[in-house]
Amino acid sequence: MSYTKRPLTVEQATNRAAALCARSEQAPADITDKLMKWGLSASDAARVTQQLIEGGFLNEQRFARAFVKDRFAFNGWGKIKMAHQLRQKGIPGDIIDEAMLAIDEDQYRQRLLELLRAKWRTVKDREPRAAWAAMMRFAASRGFETHLAGDCVKQVTHLDAQDD
């Protein structure tokens, strides 16, 4: 028994997208993609997206701030990774830069130190260069800047050496 779903009407898609946006912040590009998957044409999807923006359901600045706050707090991502992901979602650079300013630099450094301390426990028994490289790769994979990662890796490995 095979059947295909009927595409949503413009009104149905608008209501569904508005409900989705009311539950959580969404990127306009993501909503446009969803609308097209629901069977709307590109022009109808663009029109619905514009209506949602005008109605206050979609807002790039609000989305970017929420994205940065959540990914930093819950995922432990650095600014490089967050900025890359926001660019992938079609968010303009000036809005990304503004959202990044919301991150407190002291909290940013402390979060990286926490992540590195946890990682250090798994690599500290390796040869020193291999451990250093693993720590730096880890920080880079989380999207932290190289200069900050280097300083924090030194701090974490130095504190461990003092404990011995």
Q: Could you please describe the fold and organization of this structure?
A:
- The protein has helices spanning 10-23, 28-37, 42-54, 60-75, 79-88, 93-100, 105-123, 128-141, 146-163.
- It is an all-alpha fold and 164 residues long.
- It has three domains: 10-54; 60-100; 105-163.
- The radius of gyration is 21 Å and the shape is elongated.
Secondary structure: helix percent: over 70%
- Indicate the radius of gyration in whole angstroms: 21 Å
Please give the number of β-strands.
0
Q: What overall form do the CA principal axes indicate?
A: elongated
Q: Termini distance? A: 69 Å
Number of helices: 9
Biggest β-sheet description: none
Feature tags:
mainly alpha; 3 domains
In short:
The chain is mainly alpha-helical and 164 residues long. It has helices spanning 10-23, 28-37, 42-54, 60-75, 79-88, 93-100, 105-123, 128-141, 146-163.
Tell me the layout of helices and strands:
Elements (H helix, E strand, L loop, with lengths): L9 H14 L4 H10 L4 H13 L5 H16 L3 H10 L4 H8 L4 H19 L4 H14 L4 H18 L1
